[in-house]
Amino acid sequence: MGTHKKGPSMISDGGKENQMTLEEWIKDKPCALGEGVLKRFDGLLPFLFKVLSVNKGLSIQAHPTKELAARLHREKPENYPDDNHKPEMAIALTDFEGLCGFRPYDEVATYLETIPELETVVGMEESSSFISACKASNDEHVRKSFFKRCFTSLMTRDTNIVKESLSALVGRLSKNTNSSADLKDLLLRLNSQFPGDVGCFCIYFMNHIILKPLQAMFLAPNLPHAYLDGDCIECMACSDNTVRAGLTPKFRDVKTLCDMLDYSPGSREDNMFKCERDPSCPYSEVYNPPVPDFAVRKILVPCKEISYMLRPLNGPSIIIIIEGKGHFEKSDFNKQIAISAGTTVFCSASHSLIINKENTKLFMFQAYCEVNSQ
């Protein structure tokens, strides 16, 4: 949902598509973005809104900063097609499984000490140095330096050594039917999806997170992550810049990924992003990440309310209905718009939307961008 050229939203007038993209419509009505967004983002809608259903692991990846994105676009435009950053946020609709951020160093050191196949593929010297640093040093800079060496060694290891080590580990875990080894089921599942792939070993370096519905994670630049399973609402800056290095048949840029990553450790909880109550909008909570490109509001209107007004914003928004029925009272076509699960509506800056709903709850998300015009 948005103006991305690979999947542009089309404008529909009263249920009839009129072959105009949302991007064309905004160009014809630039005031729809609001003065602040219009100036800040050069007349472009700054976010892309998605509903994502994952039934197979998606790549070990990270997104570049704006500065790195510009350089990658200059040097490798065939792989990095624009010069924008791509911070993104996932809000779970079902139990949603992923990898996000690096584990606390002591956890990784324990895995290296207890999983010989992992120690082999990382390298004996690199593993030993990192384990010693974890035990002997409280200097975070020293630990981080050795940790980066371990992860880089893993990701750049000869593919034959990776396949042999992974095959040995899978074989050992599979034979031990009574084993309750940590991450066993995840490793076997990922290897079945991507046999012999180095990304399977990343589960011992990265936090394994399962979000409950409406929990979220924010993926800042340089943060390693991978989506593994489940349904989510996703919002991001409008960009295609993804640096991949595992669990993918797509282009891998291992050196760039290893050089750019934030190697700071964190817990599962550290990598979960909390929403806050929105006092300006009844029945709502907002996921407001530390970027200007987007925020997402979750709105759950109870059955008792027959009418609900979405207040005007100083920037554009896109609304998706998850559950409920009714109609929008006002629109840019001056017609009622019937709504049900899956309906998506673009709302211009400074416009309010009044919803007349049936006697059921109404559940929706609103992605938006607000920028002061000063």
From TrEMBL:
Entry's Gene Ontology BP terms: carbohydrate metabolic process; GDP-mannose biosynthetic process
InterPro entries assigned to the protein according to its UniProt record, in alphabetical order: Man6P_Isoase-1, Mannose-6-P_Isomerase, Pmannose_isomerase-type1_CS, PMI_typeI_C, PMI_typeI_cat, PMI_typeI_hel, RmlC-like_jellyroll, RmlC_Cupin_sf
Cofactor note: Binds 1 zinc ion per subunit.
Entry EC no(s): 5.3.1.8
Cofactor(s) the protein needs: Zn(2+)
Pfam families: PMI_typeI_C, PMI_typeI_cat, PMI_typeI_hel
GO CC annotations on file: cytosol
Pathway: Nucleotide-sugar biosynthesis; GDP-alpha-D-mannose biosynthesis; alpha-D-mannose 1-phosphate from D-fructose 6-phosphate: step 1/2
Metal-binding among keywords: yes
Keywords from the UniProt entry: Isomerase, Metal-binding, Zinc
Binding site for Zn(2+): 61, 63, 88, 225
Catalytic residues (UniProt): 244
GO molecular function, one term: zinc ion binding
Reaction catalysis annotation: D-mannose 6-phosphate = D-fructose 6-phosphate
Stated family: Belongs to the mannose-6-phosphate isomerase type 1 family.
PANTHER family (alphabetical): MANNOSE-6-PHOSPHATE ISOMERASE
Protein name according to UniProt: Mannose-6-phosphate isomerase
